[in-house]
Amino acid sequence: MTAAVSSPARAQPAALPDKPFAEHHIVLQLSDNDPKKQSLVISVAYNLLKAYDPDKVAIEVVTFGPGIDLLRPENDHRQRVESLVAQGVRFDVCLNTVDTIERDTGKRPEFIAAATPVQVGVAQILLLTENGYTLVRP
What we know:
alpha/beta; single chain; globular
């Protein structure tokens, strides 16, 4: 019972529940803190929404390692991320990375409310790809 209470983020669904008619499932990996890479990931998500009916494409961006900085409140891309979330794109933040930062700095980093916590970012990618998502690492 303790494991379920201490780590509710483990039970994230593989598919976006609000995209039952999605014909395309894409997971975008972000593990870099490079602003150009962050911008590229965001652009790819926007382009996919334009290329397909937003209800026909499920997009999940999984951030881990230095990539989690995309989801910090002070990030320059915050408005674009929140706009994508409003269009059904999901942004995951790796709790293992968050825990490591907290251990190293003594302070838990903050993230935008739109970020979905997952325990292990790479495991989330594996779960998604095993459930029909195509991995893209821009």
